[in-house]
Structure formats: structure tokens, C-alpha cells
């Protein structure tokens, strides 16, 4: 079953001022607590500056916080796992974002408006249902270029904005998300052991590229940090997929070295670099 929504351009109003908040909140309150956020993307390979995770968090567009009553409204129900997908491979001209949270998601009008505040156009929106729930899918382009998003920092800001809105309108989801520690009312009951959760695999994917798979504990800024580690050893990230599934993050990157697949010694260097970075203790800048 599929329902296609009207395309949204710059300056398009979803409703008048008197009704906008009511419509937005009503629609957002139907988002399931176990939503899934996942995505695939082509990345710019030029050098980029890496923001501190506090700066990335501040880039996420904030919306009014939902009341604690809303958080407890469905406490007797099993909260689904939130999933967010960022997909760069499906559409050559747009970044595809898919959000799933059981059957609790509405039209996500506030989320689309929040993305527009990041300098983005939602050019197409689509909703479909399957056994895993209701899937809201957006096609996104940059306002200034009309093209898909390739900047890792902006992609991470998109991810944080979506998660932040999900937590604001569905507080019960915060207990299922690593970002609930930073943004949520309800803290996650379980903490993921990074050593146990971290998995890194590299596969041959033809003569011109390799497939890098990384699974680890989620946290703000992770997408940017992964790309930084890969590009610092002169490996190009051609495209990829970044999934936020509850407390875990799963990334799949198509990578190459001088337009060739990675040879075994270079695969080992990349794997060890990522493993060291993901498992080492982190220290806040403010502690110095």
C-alpha cells in the first residue's frame, strides 16, 4: 500500500498559522515508539572540517518538547525500535530519508519543516505500509544547488534533527535510542557495550571498489567521525548507507583507493584504525 504526498518546495506552507501547530502535533503523535531511521548516501571526498558533537547537536532543529503525559500515554504497549535510513544510492539527484516507528508515525509535517530550516527542500514524500509498520520516505535536495546532500556534516545534522523531532513528539522512543541520553525525557534502560557491539567487515565489491560494513554503538557525530577516519588514510568514500536502529548504528560504505578495490593489507589498516577509534575511551574537550 502506498500513498504519495505533494512535493514541497521552498516557501511552501503546510497550513495556516492558526492550524499549523495542531495539525503538526496531531500527526507527529502517531509516530511509533520503535521507529527506524536508516539511510544511504554518496559522500563528497574533498576534505571537510569535523564539528564537535556539541556543535552537531546544536545544528539539529529543535521543536517544542512534548509533555510527560504523552510519554506515559502508551507505556503499556510494547515500544517499537526506531529506525532512520539515509539513502544516497536509490536516487541520483536526491538524498532519500526513510523513517519507521511501528505504526505510530503521522505525516511528519514538523519534521519536514525542520529539514527545510537546514536549507533543504523536501521534493517528494511517500508513505507505505508493510509488516514492520508505517514507512515515511522523503526525497531531499539542497536549496542552493537543487542537488542531493553530500556533506557528511549536513547528513549528520539531518539524522540528529529527525531523531530529535522523534523524541520530542514521541518521548517513549527516547528509551529505545542512544540519543535519548542527550535529547530524551526517558533515558535508555540498557547501555551498549562498545567492545561487544562493534563489528567491522570489508568485502570485495568488484574490481573498482570494496564494501565496508561497520556496526557499533550509536552516538552524536558518529557518521562524520567514521568518514573522517576513512578519508584520513586516503581512502575515498564513494557512496554509502547509514542506519540508526535503536541503540545501534550500522554503516555500509562503498570505498576505493585510487579507483581500485582495497587490497588485503589496506583492508587491515582500515579495519584496525576504525576498531581503535570506536573502542577507545572518549574524553570531553571541556576536561582539558
UniProtKB/TrEMBL annotation:
The record's GO CC annotations read: chloroplast stroma; chloroplast thylakoid membrane
Query: InterPro entries, from UniProt?
Result: ACR1-12, ACT_dom
**Does the UniProt entry include the keyword Repeat?**
yes
Residues forming the ACT domain are 96-176
Q: Which domain of life is it from?
A: Eukaryota
Provide the protein name: ACT domain-containing protein ACR
Q: Name one GO molecular function term.
A: amino acid binding
From which source organism is this entry?
Carya illinoinensis
User: Taxonomic lineage per UniProt?
Assistant: Eukaryota, Viridiplantae, Streptophyta, Embryophyta, Tracheophyta
What keywords would UniProt list here? Answer: Repeat
Question: What does this protein's UniProt record list under function?
Answer: Binds amino acids.
Amino acid at each position: 500500500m502506498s500513498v504519495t504526498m505533494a512535493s514541497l518546495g521552498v516557501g511552501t506552507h503546510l497550513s495556516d498559522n492558526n492550524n499549523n501547530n495542531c495539525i503538526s502535533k496531531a500527526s507527529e503523535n502517531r509516530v511509533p515508539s520503535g521507529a527506524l531511521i536508516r539511510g544511504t548516501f554518496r559522500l563528497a571526498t574533498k576534505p571537510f572540517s569535523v564539528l564537535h558533537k556539541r556543535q552537531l547537536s546544536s545544528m539539529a532543529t529543535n521543536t517544542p518538547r512534548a509533555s510527560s503525559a504523552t510519554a506515559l500515554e502508551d507505556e503499556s504497549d510494547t515500544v517499537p525500535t526506531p529506525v532512520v535510513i539515509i539513502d544516497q544510492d536509490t536516487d541520483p539527484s536526491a538524498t532519500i530519508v526513510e523513517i519507521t516507528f511501528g505504526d505510530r508515525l503521522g505525516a511528519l509535517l514538523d519534521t519536514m519543516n525542520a529539514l527545510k530550516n537546514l536549507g533543504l527542500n523536501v521534493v517528494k514524500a511517500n508513505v507505505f505500509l508493510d509488516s514492520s509498520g508505517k514507512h515515511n520516505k522523503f526525497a531531499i535536495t539542497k536549496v542552493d544547488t537543487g542537488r542531493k546532500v553530500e556533506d557528511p556534516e549536513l547528513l549528520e545534522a539531518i539524522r540528529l534533527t529527525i531523531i530529535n523531532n522523534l523524541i520530542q513528539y514521541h518521548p517513549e522512543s527516547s528509551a529505545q535510542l542512544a540519543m535519548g541520553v542527550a535529547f530524551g525525557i526517558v533515558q535508555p534502560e540498557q547501555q551498549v557495550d562498545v567492545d561487544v557491539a562493534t563489528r567491522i567487515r570489508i568485502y570485495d565489491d568488484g574490481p573498482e571498489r570494496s564494501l565496508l560494513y561497520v556496526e557499533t554503538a550509536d552516538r552524536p557525530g558518529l557518521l562524520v567521525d567514521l568518514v573522517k577516519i576513512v578519508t584520513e588514510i586516503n581512502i575515498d568514500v564513494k557512496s554509502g548507507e547509514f542506519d540508526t536502529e535503536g541503540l545501534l548504528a550500522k554503516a555500509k560504505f562503498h570505498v576505493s583507493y585510487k579507483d581500485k578495490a582495497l587490497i588485503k593489507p589496506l583492508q587491515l589498516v582500515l579495519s584496525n584504525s576504525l576498531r581503535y577509534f570506536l573502542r577507545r575511551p572518549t574524553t570531553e574537550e571541556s576536561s582539558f
